[in-house]
Amino acid sequence: MPAEGAWAFDGHILLLKEFDIHKQPSKIEFTTTLLVKIYELLMSICNLKCAELMVNKIGIFVEADQTDILVPSKALKSKVDSDLKKPLRCGLMLKMNGTPSWFKMRSVKLSDFCYACGLLGHDYRYCQHHDAGVPESCLQYGPWVRASPMKKTPKSMKG
Ligand SMILES: [Zn+2]
């Protein structure tokens, strides 16, 4: 399963969606909810409103983990509905007080995605955009796109 709500099958994404009889088939959007971490936030933007604005630049904001939202040293964890036709995002460039700033992003619980084109659901070796002569180490994406799994806070020991 490449992301919440979607499955990878034989190099393709399988996503079940309720059919809207009032929409043309070409207008139906296929999104899946990704859990992303955004790193090195500025103290001036560590709030829910800014988190929502940032996440809406890469998809549709669903929710953010508010436990760490006021701690700039921790990554902002947020769920985002992401268009399956667009490649994964590894970061976000924003102008902060007129200065461009790069915010690194990583996705949690990703399994199958292409290191060549960044789309979910297939391996780069089967990608129509991949030149077989290009080694994996020279591709635009890699396993580093995956965030380390979130650690659960240990429960206090009873004693
Ligand atoms: Zn690909």
Automatic annotation (TrEMBL):
The domain of life for this entry's organism is Eukaryota
Cited InterPro entries: At4g02000-like
Annotated PANTHER family:
GLYCINE-RICH CELL WALL STRUCTURAL PROTEIN 1.8-LIKE, OS09G0268800 PROTEIN
Give the protein name, as stated in the record: CCHC-type domain-containing protein
Which organism's genome codes for this protein? Carnegiea gigantea
